[in-house]
Design a protein that fits this description.
single chain, alpha+beta, Heat Shock Protein 90, five-stranded mixed sheet, 7 strands
């Protein structure tokens, strides 16, 4: 329903009820005559007309944009003026109905005007309150839209950082194989094309299924396995319940890449990387363990994947997701990620 239509419904129904209530209470103590009925029903067009003119002044002079301390005295004065006009109109109508105008009683006129002023003040209170709540709600919605837009821009920025970083490392891996082993280089290109096909399709998605992410990670590990040969070993232990979860695209792949680049690749004998999953309080716990040592004081040197992951988790899940990294046993680095069930209505 449009605001204009709602306004007229409230105007017509409100004043009609006001007239009926006054007639009802008057009729409890007096007998209603035809003149009384005409008088009361003359209130109806008078009230509608005066309050509509009141609204016209409010809109024309932009009273709704004024500060509250300015609005209040303006409304009080306008209510008194409206009450005075209403009382004057009724004095004219009563004079025409009785064929003569009664002598004006100043005290009674002031009392009646004050009573009517309260009626118009109450009308203005409802009108201003409605617009205040309406504007407040609209401002809240606009604020949420701006927050969502900023959130989306930041998330897209993180994605734009992610793909070039991944491409650079993957192409370096393939370049190292071209002269040494062309056949393995072709296999590597096939692995890379599988990853790129998936990432290009997922560019517009905020989250993907955990199953899809694991397929990308597997392709990446197979690609790196060609380069590192026996220096790289990996294993995946995925619980059945993990399939119901969704995570940001390339989230795990980035961390796995980080673990290989800054951990395993620096070890002469190579190392192992494992991905274990478990269910903790209806959340998915993903544990990535790789050979190497983590120095949190030098996180900036290894931190693209970590910082990117923290930011992306925050933008997608707020404080419902978490990530921690620490040194495990036997010279290993453990990264634990807690992922809640993704609800598009809740997190958008």
């Amino acid at each position: 329903m449009s605001k204009t239509k709602l306004y007229w419904i409230c105007q017509l129904v409100g004043w009609f009820l006001y007239v009926l209530l006054n007639m009802f209470f008057y009729g409890l103590q007096h007998s209603l005559t035809n003149k009384d009925l005409i008088t009361y029903f003359s209130w109806y067009p008078s009230g509608v007309l005066i309050t509509h003119l009141f609204r016209y002044v409010v809109v024309k002079l932009n009273w709704l944009k004024f500060k509250t301390y300015i609005q209040i005295p303006l409304v009080v004065v306008a209510s008194v003026i409206s009450g005075t006009i209403f009382h004057f109109i009724q004095y004219i109508i009563d004079g025409l109905l009785n064929v003569r105008f009664a002598q004006v009683d100043l005290i009674d006129s002031v009392k009646t005007t004050i009573d009517l002023s309260f009626v118009f003040f109450f009308w203005s209170l409802i009108y201003f309150s409605f617009h205040f709540l309406s504007n407040y709600t609209r401002a809240e919605i606009q604020s949420l839209k701006w927050q969502a837009t900023i959130k989306e821009i930041e998330l897209n920025k993180l994605k734009s950082q992610l793909n070039p970083h991944f491409m650079f490392n993957a192409m370096n891996s393939i370049r190292a194989l071209i002269d040494e082993d062309p056949i393995k280089a072709k296999e590597a290109i096939t692995q890379l094309s599988n990853i790129l096909r998936n990432t290009l399709m997922m560019e517009k998605n905020k989250v993907i299924s955990f199953e899809e992410e694991i397929r990308i990670v597997t392709d990446y590990l197979n690609l790196e396995k060609i380069r590192f040969e026996e220096r790289l070993h990996y294993s995946l232990n995925i619980v059945p319940g993990a399939a119901t979860f969704s995570i940001p695209p390339l989230l795990l792949q980035t961390l796995v890449e980080n673990g290989i680049k800054h951990g395993i690749s620096k070890l002469t004998q190579g190392g192992e990387i494992t991905i274990d999953t478990s269910m903790v309080k209806n959340n998915l716990l993903i544990s990535i363990k790789n050979s190497g040592t983590y120095n949190e004081n030098k996180e900036s040197e290894t931190g693209f994947g970590l910082k990117n992951t923290r930011d992306r988790l925050t933008y997608v899940y707020g404080d419902k997701a978490s990530i921690e990294i620490f040194n495990g046993k036997e010279e290993s680095v453990v990264t634990n990620i807690v992922i809640p069930q993704y609800n598009s209505e809740k997190y958008n």
